[in-house]
Write the C-alpha coordinates for this entry.
Amino acid sequence: MTAPFIFEGSKVLLRFMISFLKFKKHDILACKNPEMFTQMLKSASLDKSFADDSYIVSDAFSIPHLGNAEVARRIKSVQSSGVIAKLPTRQDDKPFYIPKFTGNRSTVFSDAQIVNLWEWLPSLSLQRLHLKIIFSTAVDGHNLRRLYETCDQTTTSILAIKDTAGNVFGGFCTEPWDLDGRVKGTPESFLFSFTQNSATPQIYLSTGMNNLFQLTTIHSLQMGGGGDGPGLFLDASLQEGGSNVCETYNNDPLIGESECFHVSLLEVLGFVEP
Protein backbone atom coordinates (compact mmCIF):
# COMPACT_ATOMS: atom_id res chain seq x y z
CA MET A 1 0.00 0.00 0.00
CA THR A 2 3.01 2.32 0.07
CA ALA A 3 3.07 3.14 -3.66
CA PRO A 4 -0.50 4.57 -3.83
CA PHE A 5 0.30 6.95 -0.96
CA ILE A 6 3.42 8.16 -2.76
CA PHE A 7 1.47 9.09 -5.88
CA GLU A 8 -1.92 10.12 -4.44
CA GLY A 9 -1.19 11.04 -0.83
CA SER A 10 -4.23 11.47 1.42
CA LYS A 11 -6.52 10.97 -1.58
CA VAL A 12 -6.04 7.22 -1.00
CA LEU A 13 -8.00 7.63 2.24
CA LEU A 14 -10.78 9.34 0.29
CA ARG A 15 -10.94 6.34 -2.06
CA PHE A 16 -11.31 3.93 0.88
CA MET A 17 -13.93 6.14 2.52
CA ILE A 18 -16.02 6.16 -0.67
CA SER A 19 -15.63 2.40 -0.97
CA PHE A 20 -16.87 2.00 2.60
CA LEU A 21 -19.87 4.29 2.01
CA LYS A 22 -20.81 2.30 -1.10
CA PHE A 23 -20.51 -1.02 0.72
CA LYS A 24 -22.51 0.13 3.75
CA LYS A 25 -24.98 2.43 1.97
CA HIS A 26 -28.14 0.70 3.18
CA ASP A 27 -26.87 0.33 6.76
CA ILE A 28 -25.92 4.01 6.88
CA LEU A 29 -29.30 5.14 5.56
CA ALA A 30 -31.01 2.99 8.20
CA CYS A 31 -29.27 4.87 11.03
CA LYS A 32 -31.73 7.25 12.70
CA ASN A 33 -29.36 8.80 15.26
CA PRO A 34 -25.63 9.12 16.07
CA GLU A 35 -25.74 6.16 18.45
CA MET A 36 -27.00 3.84 15.71
CA PHE A 37 -24.33 5.14 13.36
CA THR A 38 -21.59 4.50 15.95
CA GLN A 39 -22.85 0.96 16.50
CA MET A 40 -22.94 0.38 12.74
CA LEU A 41 -19.28 1.43 12.48
CA LYS A 42 -18.33 -0.99 15.26
CA SER A 43 -20.15 -3.80 13.48
CA ALA A 44 -18.53 -2.88 10.17
CA SER A 45 -15.08 -3.33 11.67
CA LEU A 46 -15.97 -7.01 12.23
CA ASP A 47 -17.42 -7.50 8.74
CA LYS A 48 -15.12 -10.06 7.13
CA SER A 49 -16.33 -9.34 3.60
CA PHE A 50 -15.30 -5.69 3.86
CA ALA A 51 -12.15 -6.50 5.81
CA ASP A 52 -10.85 -8.51 2.85
CA ASP A 53 -7.89 -6.49 1.57
CA SER A 54 -8.31 -7.60 -2.04
CA TYR A 55 -11.92 -6.39 -2.11
CA ILE A 56 -11.06 -3.02 -0.57
CA VAL A 57 -8.15 -2.31 -2.89
CA SER A 58 -9.99 -3.45 -6.01
CA ASP A 59 -13.07 -1.34 -5.30
CA ALA A 60 -11.26 1.76 -3.99
CA PHE A 61 -8.93 2.05 -6.97
CA SER A 62 -11.68 1.42 -9.52
CA ILE A 63 -13.37 4.72 -8.57
CA PRO A 64 -12.96 7.09 -11.56
CA HIS A 65 -12.53 10.89 -11.77
CA LEU A 66 -10.74 11.46 -8.49
CA GLY A 67 -8.14 13.95 -9.67
CA ASN A 68 -7.37 16.81 -7.31
CA ALA A 69 -9.20 19.22 -9.58
CA GLU A 70 -12.36 17.11 -9.43
CA VAL A 71 -12.09 16.71 -5.65
CA ALA A 72 -11.65 20.46 -5.23
CA ARG A 73 -14.63 21.09 -7.53
CA ARG A 74 -16.83 18.80 -5.43
CA ILE A 75 -15.68 20.45 -2.19
CA LYS A 76 -16.49 23.86 -3.69
CA SER A 77 -19.94 22.57 -4.66
CA VAL A 78 -20.61 21.33 -1.11
CA GLN A 79 -19.41 24.61 0.39
CA SER A 80 -21.65 26.69 -1.86
CA SER A 81 -24.65 24.53 -0.94
CA GLY A 82 -24.39 25.72 2.68
CA VAL A 83 -24.53 22.15 4.01
CA ILE A 84 -21.01 22.42 5.40
CA ALA A 85 -19.74 25.82 6.47
CA LYS A 86 -16.06 25.24 5.89
CA LEU A 87 -13.94 22.51 4.37
CA PRO A 88 -10.21 22.67 3.65
CA THR A 89 -9.39 23.34 0.01
CA ARG A 90 -6.25 22.97 -2.06
CA GLN A 91 -5.44 26.59 -1.24
CA ASP A 92 -5.07 25.63 2.42
CA ASP A 93 -2.31 23.11 1.59
CA LYS A 94 1.35 23.70 0.91
CA PRO A 95 2.73 22.33 -2.37
CA PHE A 96 4.47 18.98 -1.89
CA TYR A 97 7.04 19.85 -4.55
CA ILE A 98 8.55 23.17 -5.57
CA PRO A 99 8.48 23.52 -9.37
CA LYS A 100 11.82 23.48 -11.19
CA PHE A 101 12.69 24.15 -14.80
CA THR A 102 14.78 22.15 -17.23
CA GLY A 103 16.44 24.80 -19.38
CA ASN A 104 15.24 28.39 -19.39
CA ARG A 105 12.72 29.59 -16.84
CA SER A 106 9.34 30.94 -17.84
CA THR A 107 9.21 34.65 -18.56
CA VAL A 108 5.41 34.70 -18.29
CA PHE A 109 5.19 33.65 -14.64
CA SER A 110 6.88 35.09 -11.59
CA ASP A 111 8.39 32.54 -9.20
CA ALA A 112 5.54 33.08 -6.71
CA GLN A 113 2.90 32.60 -9.40
CA ILE A 114 4.21 29.27 -10.63
CA VAL A 115 4.61 27.96 -7.06
CA ASN A 116 0.99 28.84 -6.22
CA LEU A 117 -0.30 27.40 -9.49
CA TRP A 118 1.62 24.17 -8.76
CA GLU A 119 -0.72 23.40 -5.86
CA TRP A 120 -3.59 22.90 -8.28
CA LEU A 121 -1.98 20.21 -10.44
CA PRO A 122 -4.13 17.08 -10.31
CA SER A 123 -1.55 14.62 -8.94
CA LEU A 124 1.66 14.37 -6.96
CA SER A 125 3.21 12.42 -9.81
CA LEU A 126 2.92 15.58 -11.94
CA GLN A 127 4.14 17.84 -9.14
CA ARG A 128 7.41 15.93 -8.85
CA LEU A 129 8.25 16.58 -12.54
CA HIS A 130 10.17 19.53 -13.96
CA LEU A 131 8.84 22.09 -16.41
CA LYS A 132 10.32 22.74 -19.81
CA ILE A 133 9.41 25.48 -22.29
CA ILE A 134 8.21 23.57 -25.36
CA PHE A 135 7.01 26.59 -27.32
CA SER A 136 7.52 30.32 -26.84
CA THR A 137 6.47 33.17 -29.10
CA ALA A 138 9.72 34.90 -28.07
CA VAL A 139 11.69 32.10 -29.78
CA ASP A 140 9.30 30.39 -32.19
CA GLY A 141 7.29 33.41 -33.32
CA HIS A 142 3.57 34.17 -33.32
CA ASN A 143 2.41 31.25 -35.42
CA LEU A 144 -0.32 28.78 -34.46
CA ARG A 145 0.74 26.10 -36.94
CA ARG A 146 4.26 26.24 -35.52
CA LEU A 147 2.80 25.77 -32.03
CA TYR A 148 0.95 22.65 -33.18
CA GLU A 149 4.07 21.22 -34.83
CA THR A 150 6.18 21.84 -31.71
CA CYS A 151 3.67 20.61 -29.13
CA ASP A 152 2.08 17.59 -30.85
CA GLN A 153 3.97 15.14 -28.61
CA THR A 154 3.45 17.06 -25.36
CA THR A 155 0.59 15.25 -23.63
CA THR A 156 0.20 17.43 -20.53
CA SER A 157 1.03 21.11 -20.51
CA ILE A 158 0.40 24.59 -19.15
CA LEU A 159 -0.64 27.22 -21.68
CA ALA A 160 0.69 30.50 -20.26
CA ILE A 161 -0.13 33.94 -21.67
CA LYS A 162 0.87 37.47 -20.79
CA ASP A 163 -1.05 40.17 -22.63
CA THR A 164 0.03 43.70 -23.49
CA ALA A 165 -1.78 45.00 -20.38
CA GLY A 166 0.37 42.76 -18.14
CA ASN A 167 -2.35 40.21 -17.30
CA VAL A 168 -1.15 36.62 -16.77
CA PHE A 169 -3.60 33.78 -17.48
CA GLY A 170 -3.99 30.48 -19.31
CA GLY A 171 -4.95 26.87 -18.81
CA PHE A 172 -3.79 23.46 -17.64
CA CYS A 173 -4.22 21.01 -20.52
CA THR A 174 -4.27 17.23 -20.52
CA GLU A 175 -3.93 16.42 -24.24
CA PRO A 176 -1.49 17.60 -26.91
CA TRP A 177 -2.00 20.86 -28.79
CA ASP A 178 -1.94 19.27 -32.24
CA LEU A 179 -3.90 20.00 -35.39
CA ASP A 180 -6.51 17.25 -35.39
CA GLY A 181 -9.60 19.47 -35.37
CA ARG A 182 -11.37 17.56 -32.63
CA VAL A 183 -12.69 18.26 -29.16
CA LYS A 184 -10.43 16.64 -26.57
CA GLY A 185 -9.13 16.92 -23.03
CA THR A 186 -10.33 15.63 -19.66
CA PRO A 187 -12.08 17.04 -16.57
CA GLU A 188 -8.65 17.49 -14.96
CA SER A 189 -8.06 20.55 -17.15
CA PHE A 190 -8.72 24.04 -15.79
CA LEU A 191 -8.37 27.74 -16.55
CA PHE A 192 -6.50 30.21 -14.36
CA SER A 193 -5.80 33.91 -14.09
CA PHE A 194 -3.65 36.14 -11.90
CA THR A 195 -5.69 39.29 -11.51
CA GLN A 196 -3.77 42.58 -11.32
CA ASN A 197 -0.50 40.63 -11.38
CA SER A 198 -1.37 38.90 -8.10
CA ALA A 199 0.71 35.92 -6.94
CA THR A 200 -2.46 33.96 -6.10
CA PRO A 201 -4.33 32.40 -9.01
CA GLN A 202 -8.05 32.36 -9.58
CA ILE A 203 -8.78 28.76 -10.61
CA TYR A 204 -11.72 27.68 -12.77
CA LEU A 205 -12.24 23.92 -12.62
CA SER A 206 -14.31 21.92 -15.07
CA THR A 207 -18.02 21.87 -14.23
CA GLY A 208 -19.14 18.71 -15.99
CA MET A 209 -21.60 20.72 -18.11
CA ASN A 210 -19.88 19.67 -21.35
CA ASN A 211 -16.62 18.21 -22.63
CA LEU A 212 -15.30 21.20 -24.60
CA PHE A 213 -12.00 21.18 -22.71
CA GLN A 214 -9.70 21.75 -25.72
CA LEU A 215 -10.32 22.38 -29.42
CA THR A 216 -7.78 22.90 -32.18
CA THR A 217 -8.35 24.04 -35.77
CA ILE A 218 -6.16 25.65 -38.40
CA HIS A 219 -7.81 28.97 -37.56
CA SER A 220 -7.81 28.96 -33.76
CA LEU A 221 -7.07 27.28 -30.45
CA GLN A 222 -9.54 27.33 -27.59
CA MET A 223 -10.39 26.01 -24.14
CA GLY A 224 -13.97 25.76 -22.98
CA GLY A 225 -17.25 26.50 -24.69
CA GLY A 226 -20.96 26.97 -24.25
CA GLY A 227 -22.43 29.97 -22.45
CA ASP A 228 -21.09 33.21 -23.93
CA GLY A 229 -18.32 31.52 -25.94
CA PRO A 230 -14.84 30.03 -25.44
CA GLY A 231 -13.31 30.42 -22.01
CA LEU A 232 -9.99 31.07 -23.76
CA PHE A 233 -9.51 31.72 -27.48
CA LEU A 234 -6.43 32.45 -29.62
CA ASP A 235 -6.43 33.21 -33.35
CA ALA A 236 -4.03 31.79 -35.94
CA SER A 237 -1.64 34.71 -35.53
CA LEU A 238 -1.24 34.08 -31.78
CA GLN A 239 -1.50 37.84 -31.40
CA GLU A 240 -5.20 38.30 -30.71
CA GLY A 241 -7.48 36.42 -28.35
CA GLY A 242 -10.51 36.53 -26.15
CA SER A 243 -12.07 35.15 -22.98
CA ASN A 244 -15.76 34.64 -22.25
CA VAL A 245 -17.88 33.13 -19.51
CA CYS A 246 -18.21 29.50 -20.64
CA GLU A 247 -20.14 26.50 -19.36
CA THR A 248 -17.12 24.18 -19.38
CA TYR A 249 -15.29 26.06 -16.60
CA ASN A 250 -17.88 28.59 -15.36
CA ASN A 251 -15.11 31.17 -15.46
CA ASP A 252 -15.09 34.92 -15.30
CA PRO A 253 -13.34 36.55 -18.27
CA LEU A 254 -9.67 35.84 -17.58
CA ILE A 255 -8.62 39.41 -18.34
CA GLY A 256 -11.08 41.31 -16.18
CA GLU A 257 -13.83 43.37 -17.73
CA SER A 258 -12.50 43.17 -21.28
CA GLU A 259 -13.28 40.11 -23.43
CA CYS A 260 -10.41 40.67 -25.91
CA PHE A 261 -6.66 40.82 -25.44
CA HIS A 262 -3.44 41.30 -27.38
CA VAL A 263 -0.72 38.71 -26.75
CA SER A 264 2.64 39.99 -25.53
CA LEU A 265 4.15 36.58 -24.77
CA LEU A 266 2.84 33.02 -24.94
CA GLU A 267 4.49 29.84 -23.68
CA VAL A 268 3.56 26.16 -23.65
CA LEU A 269 5.23 24.49 -20.67
CA GLY A 270 5.58 20.72 -20.76
CA PHE A 271 6.31 18.27 -17.92
CA VAL A 272 9.54 16.28 -18.09
CA GLU A 273 11.42 13.87 -15.84
CA PRO A 274 14.02 15.54 -13.56
User: Anything to note?
Assistant: The longest helix spans residues 68-81.
